[in-house]
Amino acid sequence: MQTVQYWFGDAEIDDGRVRSVKFLKKSGSEEYAERCRNIESDMADFVPLRVADAIAGDNGDTAGFKDEAEYFETLRLTTIALAESKIKLYYTKGDIELVQMVRVLDEMDNVINRLIERATEWYIVQNPKFSRKYKSVSAKKMVDIMRREKNSLGRLGYEIDRLSIERTRLMREISDRADIIAPNCSALVGGLVAARLISRAGSLSRMAMMPASAVQVLGAESALFTHLRGNTPSPKHGIIFQHRRIHNAGIGVRGKVSRVLGGKLAIAARLDYYRGEIAPEFIEKAQERIDYVFAAGDEGGKDNGNNGKADGKVDGKDDGKKKNDKSDKRRSAE
Amino acid sequence: MIRIDGVLLSKGSGGVYGEKMMKGLRVWDPYRSKFAALAMIKPETDLDEDLRVLYLGAANGTTVSHFADYVKTVYAVEFAPRPMQDLIEVSRRRKNIIPIMADATNPREYAPFVEEVGMIYQDVAQPNQAEIALVNLPFLKKGGVVILMLKARSVDVTADPKVIFEDTIKTLEDGGLIVEDTCRLEPYHHDHACIICRKP
User: Fold this and answer.
1) Above 60 in pLDDT, residue B125?
2) What residues does each domain of chain B span?
């Protein structure tokens, strides 16, 4: 004799057959959904339900559903209610919206650049004497020049300008939101880059589960796969290249800085996901370490490489401690 | 299955995803749906109107809606929230679709809802496709079929699709299934293979 929990009630099962069912008191799909949130089945000796067992009369009992149509209607509404509440929960996490915002931002960049390019070509046709040579006309300036025209090109210039303003506003909003959702990542690389990383990873939870090496090359997927397929060198950095400590680093240590930053970011993402608040002592140490490896590039020479490595081991131990600390916290939270 | 002039069709009200209609029936495009591709390649493929299907990886519910036109009940399992929203919308209008938001690798989540089925149809873009099919076997009745749409690129982008294909078949056979038939879904879907198994 064993008890199996089905969505409509608990069933007593003997020898692979349902003997009796204790039905949940007749109610709406919301009550069924509530019950289903709390039940779990054991798959070891699982017996799939038989619809007939749930229908009054067919199961030799007066309790149960009136007929098959009522059974399936209630089941469908119950699973829909369950799915809807799960979707809602998923969207309230915040990083999902952040991902969409970053994607809109990237698309806006694209659109604005292409519009400016196209409109500039048009402007040059209208003003044959105009040339950008020797004048360093930035895109922004170009839009200002176009806006002075009194025709549809001028109006287009105005719209592009408005779009750029909106883009800046969105960028600030993304950065602010990243500060809240991923405080540690944002402290390391700034809100915008942190948001870009989360966006590329898909969500904060996915990024938190990524190995450091994956974080390091997030955004360089095409280079990575060309490398895995053929004999091109592996990419050193992806999105994190936008961090000043990497694009300003000397060519000799750029890979090292990327690796360190990737590692620290992977830890930061886990802190953000599991702890959700800033860890100042971690940020401070990580910055120190990044700056150290970065500075090694300025002096040049072989020695620095070795120093970096020796130091890396010490630091590695330190990280291990951090991880333990974190997992302790996680356990205590559970 | 309904075929007119070599076009696969299904009965039901249209407009689910902008599909074409032909003589009042819905056109089931083999280039969009892998099951339709299978039905074009293997004309003996059929869906019984009394069949219950456990559909793993239901996605937007396009193929699911065609399944629902043919069979009795479809238990549609999907994990991702975005496609789930569409699937719910489809199931509101097609009363024989039970949409379940759960992870197909963890059948405990949806075991309380699913009855014994005659077919497991699996189209998930996951690396461990054979294992997913095996953990869902308790739902399948004796003699039931498993139709597995294998996307080699989802298992391992760098490995040879042929090796992955053979590995998957071996895992399925070790899990107690009899592999009855296999085919590639060319020219409709690239890098896809279909494995049809039966539970003894």
Assistant:
1) yes
2) 30-198
A225 is written with which tokens?
């796969």
Give DSSP secondary structure letters for A221-252.
HHHHHHHHHSSSPPPS-SGGGGSHHHHTS-TT
Cα–Cα nearest to B151, from B181, B173, B124, B174 = B124
Does B84 contact A50 at a Cβ distance shorter than 8 Å?
no
Give the type of residue at B137. L
- Contacts of residue B92 in chain A, CB cutoff 8 Å? 80
CATH homologous superfamily for A197-334? Nop domain (1.10.246.90)
CATH of domain B30-198: 3.40.50.150
* Tokens found for residue B56: 């793993």
Beta-carbon separation of B101 and A72 below 8 A:
no
Contacts of A134 (CB under 8 A, 6+ apart): none
pTM: 0.71
Cβ neighbours around A71 below 10 Å, total: 17
CB-nearest to B99 from A6, A46, A80 is A80
ipTM of the modeled complex: 0.92
**Residues 6+ positions from B123 with CB-CB distance below 8 Å:** B34, B55, B56, B57, B59, B63, B149
* Per-residue pLDDT tens digits for A210-256: 999 999 988 888 888 888 888 888 888 888 888 888 888 888 888 88
